[in-house]
Design a protein that fits this description.
The complex is a heterodimer. In chain A, 39% of the residues lie in helices and 17% in strands. By secondary structure, chain A is α/β, with parallel strands linked by helices. Chain B folds into two domains: 352 residues, Methylmalonyl-CoA mutase (TIM Barrel, Alpha-Beta Barrel); 67 residues, Glutamate mutase, C-terminal domain (Alpha-Beta Complex), CATH 3.90.970. In chain B, the strands form two sheets. In chain B, strands 1-8-7-6-5-4-3-2 form an eight-stranded parallel β-sheet. Chain B has a two-stranded antiparallel ribbon with strand order 9-10. In chain B, strand 4, helix 9 and strand 5 form a beta-alpha-beta unit. In chain B, helix 8 runs parallel beside helix 9, helix 10 runs parallel beside helix 11 and helix 10 packs across helix 14. Classes of the chains: A alpha/beta, B alpha/beta. Chains A and B meet through helix 1 of A and helix 5, helix 6 and helix 17 of B.
Chain lengths: 145, 485
């Protein structure tokens, strides 16, 4: 791989303690050549932002599985701007709202909140990594021998 | 009677702590008179007493059905529970607590209630019982005609227990390990175990006043390929900790793995081993029942496929002679279900439970051998925990997690080693791939390794993290074992 591995911040927001997928995501993005700062479960907006500033990350990947995503993510984009991260890429994914809702409604809701991309259960992680590389405008790591 | 009475929290200490606990949120004041809560419990009609329902199910050989359910507002929650009793034919009702309350974040729960009122729909993933206080909780208990249990995931559940038990809830799920390691990030075990000894002492004091409250340690832990010996050891330790504080009605749980032989073997060994360990510590006056959790891992999005997972869990529960089955819903892959979907899961389970009632699975040599294996494994963990605590289970449990003698796969807590990795063998039994520091005998470890080597050979690939990941997502992708495509 040429150049420095892009750094991303990963974590599960709010009072959510779903830890299994978080551990899988860490492994996946690491294998995909990213430098992953994984904050684990129950991460506040400011903890995400602190970590992004500290590591110079280009993206924050927020997970929410327990239904409170709508409350926990409110104002995240504004908070990033307020703290000087006006260019940071924001992704969110998981079971984002309470109850079964139409996917396009959920995606629109979180895009309106300022998230660049919104992922629902069953999304393809290889595609997510591809999109992330594109959004970070960095080249894909070369095939490993 | 009680075994070692020196471990019981002294009455004066309990009431000293209680003053502080009740000041944790303004609604605590209303439940200050302990006797009022006892009076409300004694006034419950027999068919609304959880401990009694569990004991009768056990005697009759029935498997009772219980859903999970909880929404932000009192009246909506009552409608939800009555719907599940009527349309879902639930035997026992839950009140699932929201995630903010579980972390004692009552101000955020209050905001969630307000926003839910404004939105006309629940924005919380459960019922914020502490915020609703005595009046709201009483209305729930009085408006339904079944026993109601508090189900949550709260490391410090002292105020929640005070408010709900005083209101007439007659069963309380959780424990100092099972509601910490899978549900928290940085709560020391010493603290959560002490806080749960308080809850158990509260239940013990109710017992002294003539009220039997049911207690249920949370069996499935992370619900993700947990080897049965791990959940058995944790459940038995929490059972012992509860009995020490005066609890009498105790239900131990287990989460389905999906291999029928392993599931039946696990349930048989759980009951036998718990009974053995409880008696060995001098406890004789207890009512032990068992709980089977339908698959707790990831579900298929397709609702027909989800029903197959639900029904397979229902079948295993009956064949394993569980006294209660906790029921999943076809919306599991999407998160919190609608009440209709919740009732659908219950009705599918009901049909299966009724059809299988009374049928017995021939207890062949494979099942018996698997049962003995699980017992031998759990004994290794329990004996080392006992040594570490020098006979004190609370101290032993904390030391066991610190040293990796107890280890829960994929848990969020920093106080869990997280070195244990499971993989399914060629028949779908959950086996131990990386044992971390588990004190299992070389024979046992060699057996697990041999079974996994067999699968690796058949799949022509090596054991590793990829296989672990494939197994975690296998059921949601339509199979039990994460085979390469």
């Amino acid at each position: 791989m040429t150049g420095k591995a892009p750094t991303i911040v990963l974590g599960v927001i709010g009072a959510d303690c779903h830890s299994v997928g978080n551990q899988i995501l860490e492994l996946h993005f690491t294998q995909q050549g990213f430098n992953v700062a994984n904050l684990g479960v129950m991460v506040s907006q400011d903890e995400f932002i602190d970590a992004a500033i500290e590591t110079g990350a280009g993206a924050i990947l927020v997970s929410s599985l327990y239904g409170h995503g709508e409350i926990d993510c409110a104002g995240f984009r504004e908070r990033c701007i307020e703290r000087g991260l006006d260019k940071i890429v924001l992704y969110v994914g998981g079971n984002l709202v309470v109850g079964k809702a139409a996917p396009e409604v959920v995606v629109e809701k979180f895009k309106a909140m300022g998230f660049d991309r919104v992922f629902l259960p069953g999304c393809n992680l290889d595609e997510v990594a591809e999109l992330l590389r594109k959004d970070l405008a960095v080249s894909a790591p070369r095939e490993r021998a | 009677m009680m075994g070692d009475t020196t471990k019981k929290m002294p009455r004066e200490e309990f009431f000293r702590i209680r003053d502080e606990v009740l000041r944790g949120w303004p609604t605590g004041a209303a439940v200050a008179p302990f006797e009022d809560g006892v009076r409300r419990q004694l006034a419950l009609p027999p068919h609304k007493r959880f401990a009694q329902a569990m004991a009768e199910a056990r005697k009759a050989g029935r498997t009772l059905l219980q859903p999970r359910a909880g929404v932000a507002l009192v009246e909506d929650h009552i409608r939800l529970l009555n719907y599940l009793a009527r349309e879902g034919e639930a035997d026992l009702l839950p009140t699932t607590i929201d995630a903010y309350t579980r972390q004692n974040r009552y101000a955020e729960a209050a905001a969630g209630i307000q926003r839910s009122e404004a939105a006309g729909t629940s924005l919380l993933n459960g019922f914020p019982a502490v915020n609703h206080g005595l009046d709201g909780c009483r209305r729930v208990v009085e408006s339904v005609d079944k026993p109601v249990q508090v189900r949550h995931g709260t490391p410090d559940a002292r105020l929640l227990a005070e408010i709900t038990l005083s209101s007439g809830f007659s069963s309380f799920e959780g424990g100092g390990i099972s509601y910490n390691i899978p549900y928290a990030k940085r709560v020391p075990l010493e603290k959560s175990i002490r806080d749960w000894q308080y809850v158990d002492r509260l239940v013990g004091l109710c017992g002294e006043a003539g009220v039997s409250i049911n207690r249920e340690p949370f069996g499935p832990l992370t619900g993700t390929l947990v080897p049965p010996c791990i959940s058995h050891a944790v459940g038995i330790i929490e059972g012992l900790l509860a009995l020490e504080q005066g609890v009498r009605s105790i239900s131990l749980g287990y989460g389905q793995t999906g291999n029928l032989v392993q599931d039946v073997a696990a349930m048989v060994s759980l009951r036998e081993l718990a009974d053995e360990y409880f008696r060995r510590d001098g406890h004789t006056d207890f009512e032990l029942t068992t709980v089977f959790h339908q698959w707790m891992g990831g579900f298929p999005e397709d609702e027909s496929k989800a029903f197959a997972v639900i029904s397979w869990g229902a079948a295993a529960a009956v064949l394993a002679r569980a006294d209660k089955v906790i029921v999943k819903t076809p919306h599991e892959a999407m998160g919190v279900p609608t009440r209709e979907a919740n009732a659908c899961g219950l009705r599918a389970t009901r049909q299966m439970v009724n059809m299988l009632a009374g049928q017995k699975l021939d207890a062949g040599p494979t099942r018996a051998a698997e049962s003995e294996l699980i017992k031998a494994e759990a004994r290794c963990l329990l004996e080392r925990t006992r040594e570490l605590g020098r006979g004190n289970w609370a101290a032993g449990a904390a030391a066991a997690f610190e040293s990796g003698v107890l280890d829960v796969p994929f848990a969020p807590s920093v106080f869990n080693r997280g070195r244990l990795l499971p993989i399914r063998d060629d028949e779908g039994f959950v086996r131990i791939y990386q044992p971390g520091n588990l004190p299992l005998t070389p024979d046992i470890l060699a057996y697990h390794a041999a079974r996994l080597a067999e699968r690796a050979r058949n799949e022509r690939r090596s054991l590793g993290y990829q296989m672990v990941t494939d197994d975690i997502y296998a059921i949601s992708k339509g199979r039990l074992i994460g085979r390469p495509r």
